[in-house]
C-alpha cells in the first residue's frame, strides 16, 4: 500500500472450546516466555503440508491449540510457508518495510489483553480477550489473503466467528456499523512515533458484513498463537476484502449508527474505499487489480494468478452487495 506522503519500498459453540485449553495456552506463554508445551491437534494444516516442515511454527510458538474445529475452507489450496507469512507483512505500527514487523515486534506485550466494547449495544464494557474467545469454538480456516497491493497468500488461521462474538455484546437496532481500533502505544510500536498514518489504525464494517459467517476473529495461525507481526493477540480476517480491512491487535470495538471513518479511507479516499471488496473489475487508480502475485514467488517465477471477484468467495458474500454499484462503492 503506498502512502503518498512517504517513500515506501513496496506496497503495504454445540461443542464449546474447553476454556482451559485456550487459557492454558496463553498463560503458559506468559509464564515461560513462550517455550514449547507439546503438540496437540492442529486441524487441517498437516493435511495441507506440502513443503517439508516449512509450515511448522518455530519452537517459541510450537505449542498448538487443541480441539480446533476443522472447516472445509481452503483444503485444496497450497498454503504459504510459515516463514513467508510471518516475514512479509504489513503492520505499519512496526515500520513500513515488509520485514519491519517481524524485526521490530518481538518485545510487543500481548498478555493480558483487554478489549473495550462501546456504543450501540446492551453489553458494553472492558473485556479480557481470553473471556471473549473462550465462549466460542476455535476453528481453523484456510483463507486466501489478497492485499490491495496485488500480492496474495494462503494462510491457515485459527479463530472464532466474529458474528458469534459480536452478538454476545447485544448490539441494538441502531448498530448499523461496527468500528475497530488497534492499540495506540508508541513506546511499543515505533512506527507510531512518526507520521504517515493517522494513529491509531482504524477500520469498520457494515453490521451485516461483520455478521457474515466468513468473518473471522483470529487468535492464531498455523495451529499456534498469532506471531506479533501478524497482529497478536487478536485481529480480523475478512478474506473477501482487501487485506487492509483485516485490522490487527484490536483493543476497541464500537457499535455505531453511521459509517465510521477508517485509516486508509481518510488518508486517500479516492484509492481506498470503505467496502474494499476484492474486485478485478475495479482497478486501483495507480495499478491493475486484475491479477495478483501469489506468494511465495520470485523474479523468475512470479506466480501470477487471476484475481477473482470477492477473492473467490462470491457464493458466501455476494448477496451482501446485491443491487450495489461496486464501481462507486469500491
Ligand atoms: N492492521 C494494522 N493495525 N496496521 C496495519 O498496518 N495492515 C493491513 C492489515 N492490517 C495493517 C493492519 C494490511 S495492508 C494488510 S495487507 C494485512 O494487515 C496484512 O496482514 P499480514 O501481515 O498478516 O499478511
TrEMBL record:
<dbReference type="InterPro" id="IPR036374">
    <property type="entry name" value="OxRdtase_Mopterin-bd_sf"/>
</dbReference>
<dbReference type="InterPro" id="IPR022867">
    <property type="entry name" value="MsrP"/>
</dbReference>
<feature type="binding site">
    <location>
        <position position="147"/>
    </location>
    <ligand>
        <name>Mo-molybdopterin</name>
    </ligand>
</feature>
<comment type="subunit">
    <text>Heterodimer of a catalytic subunit (MsrP) and a heme-binding subunit (MsrQ).</text>
</comment>
<dbReference type="InterPro" id="IPR006311">
    <property type="entry name" value="TAT_signal"/>
</dbReference>
<dbReference type="GO" id="GO:0016491">
    <property type="term" value="F:oxidoreductase activity"/>
</dbReference>
<keyword id="KW-0500">Molybdenum</keyword>
<feature type="binding site">
    <location>
        <position position="182"/>
    </location>
    <ligand>
        <name>Mo-molybdopterin</name>
    </ligand>
</feature>
<comment type="similarity">
    <text>Belongs to the MsrP family.</text>
</comment>
<protein>
    <recommendedName>
        <fullName>Protein-methionine-sulfoxide reductase catalytic subunit MsrP</fullName>
        <ecNumber>1.8.5.-</ecNumber>
    </recommendedName>
</protein>
<keyword id="KW-0560">Oxidoreductase</keyword>
<keyword id="KW-0479">Metal-binding</keyword>
<feature type="binding site">
    <location>
        <position position="89"/>
    </location>
    <ligand>
        <name>Mo-molybdopterin</name>
    </ligand>
</feature>
<dbReference type="InterPro" id="IPR019546">
    <property type="entry name" value="TAT_signal_bac_arc"/>
</dbReference>
<dbReference type="InterPro" id="IPR000572">
    <property type="entry name" value="OxRdtase_Mopterin-bd_dom"/>
</dbReference>
<dbReference type="Pfam" id="PF00174">
    <property type="entry name" value="Oxidored_molyb"/>
</dbReference>
<feature type="binding site">
    <location>
        <position position="235"/>
    </location>
    <ligand>
        <name>Mo-molybdopterin</name>
    </ligand>
</feature>
<feature type="binding site">
    <location>
        <position position="230"/>
    </location>
    <ligand>
        <name>Mo-molybdopterin</name>
    </ligand>
</feature>
<comment type="function">
    <text>Part of the MsrPQ system that repairs oxidized periplasmic proteins containing methionine sulfoxide residues (Met-O), using respiratory chain electrons. Thus protects these proteins from oxidative-stress damage caused by reactive species of oxygen and chlorine generated by the host defense mechanisms. MsrPQ is essential for the maintenance of envelope integrity under bleach stress, rescuing a wide series of structurally unrelated periplasmic proteins from methionine oxidation.</text>
</comment>
<feature type="binding site">
    <location>
        <begin position="92"/>
        <end position="93"/>
    </location>
    <ligand>
        <name>Mo-molybdopterin</name>
    </ligand>
</feature>
<feature type="binding site">
    <location>
        <begin position="246"/>
        <end position="248"/>
    </location>
    <ligand>
        <name>Mo-molybdopterin</name>
    </ligand>
</feature>
<keyword id="KW-0732">Signal</keyword>
<feature type="domain" description="Oxidoreductase molybdopterin-binding">
    <location>
        <begin position="109"/>
        <end position="264"/>
    </location>
</feature>
Amino acid at each position: 500500500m503506498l502512502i503518498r506522503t512517504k517513500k515506501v519500498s513496496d506496497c503495504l459453540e454445540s461443542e464449546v472450546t474447553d476454556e482451559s485449553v485456550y487459557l492454558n495456552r496463553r498463560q503458559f506463554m506468559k509464564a515461560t516466555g513462550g517455550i514449547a508445551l507439546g503438540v496437540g491437534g492442529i486441524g487441517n494444516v498437516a493435511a495441507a503440508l506440502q513443503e517439508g516442515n516449512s509450515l511448522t511454527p518455530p519452537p517459541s510458538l510450537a505449542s498448538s491449540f487443541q480441539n480446533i474445529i476443522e472447516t472445509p475452507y481452503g483444503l485444496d489450496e497450497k498454503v504459504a510457508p510459515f516463514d513467508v507469512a510471518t516475514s512479509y507483512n504489513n503492520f505499519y505500527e512496526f515500520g513500513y518495510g515488509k520485514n519491519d514487523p517481524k524485526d521490530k515486534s518481538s518485545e510487543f506485550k500481548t498478555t493480558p489483553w483487554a478489549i473495550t466494547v462501546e456504543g450501540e449495544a446492551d453489553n458494553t464494557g472492558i473485556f479480557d480477550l481470553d473471556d471473549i474467545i473462550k465462549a466460542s469454538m476455535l476453528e481453523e480456516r484456510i483463507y486466501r489473503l489478497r492485499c490491495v497491493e496485488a500480492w496474495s497468500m494462503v494462510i491457515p488461521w485459527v479463530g472464532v466467528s466474529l458474528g458469534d462474538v459480536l452478538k454476545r455484546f447485544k448490539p441494538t437496532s441502531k448498530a448499523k456499523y461496527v468500528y475497530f481500533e488497534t492499540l495506540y502505544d508508541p513506546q511499543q510500536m515505533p512506527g507510531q512515533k512518526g507520521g504517515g498514518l493517522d494513529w491509531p489504525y482504524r477500520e469498520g464494517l457494515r453490521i451485516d458484513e461483520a455478521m457474515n459467517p466468513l468473518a473471522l476473529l483470529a487468535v492464531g495461525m498455523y495451529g499456534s498463537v498469532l506471531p506479533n507481526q501478524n497482529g497478536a493477540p487478536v485481529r480480523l480476517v475478512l478474506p473477501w476484502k482487501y487485506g487492509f480491512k483485516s485490522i490487527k491487535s484490536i483493543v476497541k470495538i464500537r457499535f455505531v449508527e453511521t459509517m465510521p471513518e477508517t485509516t486508509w479511507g481518510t488518508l486517500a479516499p479516492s484509492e481506498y474505499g470503505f467496502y474494499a471488496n476484492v474486485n478485478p473489475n475495479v482497478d486501483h487508480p495507480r495499478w491493475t487489480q486484475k491479477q495478483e502475485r501469489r506468494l511465495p514467488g520470485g523474479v523468475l517465477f512470479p506466480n501470477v494468478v487471476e484475481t477473482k471477484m470477492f477473492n473467490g468467495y462470491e457464493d458466501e458474500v455476494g448477496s451482501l452487495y446485491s443491487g450495489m454499484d461496486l464501481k462507486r462503492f469500491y
